[in-house]
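Sync notes, pocket subgroup
Present: LS, DG
LS reminded everyone that the earlier model was apo-only. Rerun requested with zinc ion included. Inputs:
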Amino acid sequence: MKAAVLYDAHDFRIKELPRPQIEKDECLLRVKACGVCHSEIHQWDVKLDGLEYPRYIGHEVAGEVIQTGTGVKEFKAGDRVAAWIDGKGYAEEVAVKTNALYPLNSNMPFKYAMAEPIACTVNGIEKTNIRLSDSVALVGTGFMGLILLQELLLKGVNQLIAIDVREDMLELARKLGADVTINPLKQDVVQHVKKLTGGKGVDVSFEIGGNEQTLNLAADICRMEGKLVIFGYHPGPRCIKDLGYWNWMAFDIINAHFRNMNTILTGSRIGMELLNAGKLDMSLLITHEFPLEKIEQAFQTAKDKPKGFVKSVIVI
Ligand SMILES: [Zn+2]
């Protein structure tokens, strides 16, 4: 079977690898789609110290069961599933434990069934403990922000403010139900948010962009004793310049990241149930598709973010 293996920065190679062997409690999947994750762009763009290359990455997989282990009762060949895996997803076939497989509706396109990123958003919202009628800001409305937005509307927030420097993303945010959109390149965000919230700031401020500006902005628009949610992925150095201000503002600081496998699998299950129930609209979010052979292009596109780009998916 073919797999895309990352040998070096900007150097994916398509290799012929042996078919994965499955254990008793595993299924073999024919991979139909694998999303390109923002967290993978770093290790593709620059060869990172401390990481082993060649690397077998790709973890946002959906596909069809083609073989089941001897102990598997819940799934059979032909079943359509989303999966949570920790790598080896950019391949024609992958072995997955059954407790990390989620059934998909017969009409659900595989490319919409991104269990891992949807699990992150579900868990982020659960950890934040959103209250009915909270005013909520999303700082960064790319792929993850636009999923969070839909889930927050399901929760029932009072006011949903989407903030992004990309007008095309704000347009999508409006389409998906944001009450207000603000572009920091065009408007004073802090002033605008204060006006919308009676001078206080929002009850919950999600930082999603994963950089210093989005983090600072999220803090600047959060009310005193509000929830500052660090949802973004921050792979850089460990420094928070504004801790004094955060401290004074008595923010409830929530790091919306998870490492416990049970939490991740539960979030995946809830997310895939929402997807199957038609509660999450992924049709506007999966904007770019590439075959396995064009994986370099898929990553380059995810890095460049051309107009209208939300998410690259490898479709096999
Ligand atoms: Zn991911």
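DG: The mean pLDDT is 96.
LS: DSSP finds nine helices and 15 strands in the chain.
Action: DG to write up.
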